[in-house]
Amino acid sequence: MKTFKVPGIEKFLFRSLDPNQKWSLLGVFEEDATAISNYMNQLYQAMRRIYDAQNELSAATHLTSKLLKEYEKQRFPLGGDDEVMSSTLQQFSKVIDELSSCHAVLSTQLADAMMFPITQFKERDLKEILTLKEVFQIASNDHDAAINRYSRLSKKRENDKVKYEVTEDVYTSRKKQHQTMMHYFCALNTLQYKKKIALLEPLLGYMQAQISFFKMGSENLNEQLEEFLTNIGTSVQNVRREMDSDVETMQQTIEDLEVASDPLYVPDPDPTKFPVNRNLTRKAGYLNARNKTGLVSSTWDRQFYFTQGGNLMSQARGDVAGGLAMDIDNCSVMAVDCEDRRYCFQITSFDGKKLWICTINNISKQIYLSENPEEIAARVNQSALEAVTPSPSFQQRHESLRPAAQSRPPTARTSSSGSLGSESTNLAALSLDSLVAPDTPIQFDIISPVCEDQPGQAKAFGQGGRRTNPFGESGGGTKSETEDSILHQLFIVRFLGSMEVKSDDSPDVVYETMRQILAARAIHNIFRMTESHLLVTCDCLKLIDPQTQVTRLTFPLPCVVLYATHQENKRLFGFVLRTSGGRSESNLSSVCYIFESNNEGEKICDSVGLAKQIALHAELDRRASEKQKEMERVKEKQQKELSKQKQIEKDLEEQSRLIAASSRPNQASSEGQFVVLSSSQSEESDLGEEGKKRESEA
Question: Which uninterrupted H or E stretch holds 650?
Answer without folding.
Answer: helix 601-668
